[in-house]
Structures are given as C-alpha cells and as structure tokens.
Amino acid sequence: MTVQINPSILSADFARLADEVAQVRNADWLHVDVMDNHFVPNLTLGLPVVESLMKATDTPIDMHLMIEDPDRWAPAYAEAGAGSVTFHVEAATAPIKLARDLRAKGARASMALRPATPIEPYEDLLPELDMLLVMTVEPGFGGQSFLDVMLPKIRRTRQLIAKHGLQMWLQVDGGVSAKTIEMCAEAGADVFVAGSAVFDGTDPGAAVDRLRGLAAGAAARCAH
Ligand SMILES: O=C(CO)[C@@H](O)[C@H](O)COP(=O)(O)O
Predict the structure, then answer these.
(1) Which CATH superfamily is domain 4-222 in?
(2) How far apart are the first and last CA of the chain?
(3) What InterPro entries has UniProt attached to this entry (predicted)?
C-alpha cells in the first residue's frame, strides 16, 4: 500500500513560508489549513496566500477548508490549481454537487468528518469522493493530542470503502507523530497530515522520511 505524508504548514513559520516548504520537498503534498473563525475558533489564510504558495513550490497542494459555506468557496481553490480540496460535511449544503464540481475542476474531491461526526450516514457519498478525512483532533489548532478513540472510526471507514469496492484515500489529521502514525496505518489510513511532528523539529525533511517509513512498515504488516 502506498502511503502519503502531507506536512501541515500550520506549524511552519509563516514569515518564512517558502523556505519552510523547501525543507519538505520529499513530502507528497503540502497540507494547507483554511480557517474562518466561524466553523472553527481560529483564523488562518485564504486564496491569495495559497496562490503565492503555489508559485513557491512544485509540491501539490492539499487544501483543508475548515470554513462555513464551502459550497461557495471551495471550487475557487480547485480552479487555482490545488490538487486536492477537502470540505467539511458538517458545513456543506450540497456535498454531492460540491464533490462533482471539485472533480470537474480537476481536483481530488475530499470530505472531512469532525471527531463527533459518524461516517455511516454518509456511506452513499463515498463513490463521489477521492478521499475521506477522519479528524483525529477537534479541528482548529495544531499541536493537540491524538484522539485514539478515533481508531475504530478509521477502521470502520476503511471497511466501508472496501465494501463499496472503491479505491479511495483515507486521510488522518491531528496529533499524527512517530508515536501515533503506525496505529493509524494499521487501522487503514494511508494519507497522514503532520504539522508539529514535522516543523517543530530541527530537520523537517528527515521527519517526513521517518513518518513515511513508520507508516509504510505498519501498512505492509497489515495489508488492507
Ligand atoms: O487541521 C488541523 C488542525 O485543525 C491540522 O492540520 C493541524 O495543523 C495538525 O497539526 P498537528 O496536530 O500535526 O500538530
């Protein structure tokens, strides 16, 4: 199973963003968190910053929109060239239409679930998606502790993906580190967002390699 490691720039130094992302050229994607201070109690950045970031790196961009009204705002990120756009199902009015729109614009269509949101009511949406994001912290801030009570939900989501015969990425985000990544991979996740575990150390590139090695090893041991 291929695994992907996506450093979250939320833990990077925003004043030196181009230099920070240059340190993780070995990453699969750059994870970019957009927060609007409504859907989550924090405010980060928007499309102009993302457009500048795209000029500063060749690494594809993995957008995570923690915003209200993603139906209105998400397509613009796909149009700007983001390779992956994740919206929250709790905020979307018409998730199927939105997913189709994102795919039509050439992006990986992805839907996120807050920790308290179950996957089962959304099973029918899975064929419309390229990726599902199971949040492993309450969205809003980096550096929180991994919620291991999310492991059964990751497992269940992987089962439902298999039940529908789909090839879908299953992303986890929040508290992912060298201590927690193997249990996520064993549960069925294959895309790993890591902020503080990558950027808080002295060698972000080495941290990406280490996380990839741990995740790939755990995935190979259980072969989902
Ligand atoms: O979406 C979020 C937080 O809401 C994340 O992407 C965080 O940025 C992850 O940070 P760490 O938990 O890895 O430090």
Answers:
(1) Aldolase class I (3.20.20.70)
(2) 8
(3) Aldolase_TIM, Ribul_P_3_epim, Ribul_P_3_epim-like, RibuloseP-bd_barrel
Between CA 20 and CA 204 the distance in angstroms is 8
88 is in an annotated binding site: no
- Return the pLDDT at 222: 86
How many A from CA of 155 to the centre of ligand 1?
A: 21
Q: Which atom of ligand 1 is nearest to the CA of 143?
A: 14
Indicate if ligand 1 lies below 6 Å from the C-beta of 175: yes
CA 57/CA 78 separation, integer angstroms: 17
Q: What is the per-residue pLDDT across 32-61, written as a single tens digit (0 to 9) for each?
A: 999 999 999 999 999 999 999 999 999 999
Complex ipTM: 0.98
Active site residues: 33, 173
Contacts of 55 (CB under 8 A, 6+ apart): none
Taking CA atoms only, the protein residue closest to ligand 1 atom 10 is 142
User: Cβ distance 113 to 135 under 8 Å?
Assistant: yes
The first and second tokens of residue 5, run together, are: 């490691």
Regarding the beta carbon of 142 and ligand 1, being less than 6 Å apart is answered: yes
Contact yes or no for 3/185 (Cβ under 8 A): yes
Name the DSSP letter for residue 25.
Answer: T
Distance of CA 218 to the CA centre of its chain: 19
Query: How far, in Å, from the CA of 163 to the mean position of ligand 1?
Result: 29
CA pair distance 14, 49, nearest whole angstrom: 10
Does 7 sit in the ligand 1 pocket, CB within 6 Å? no
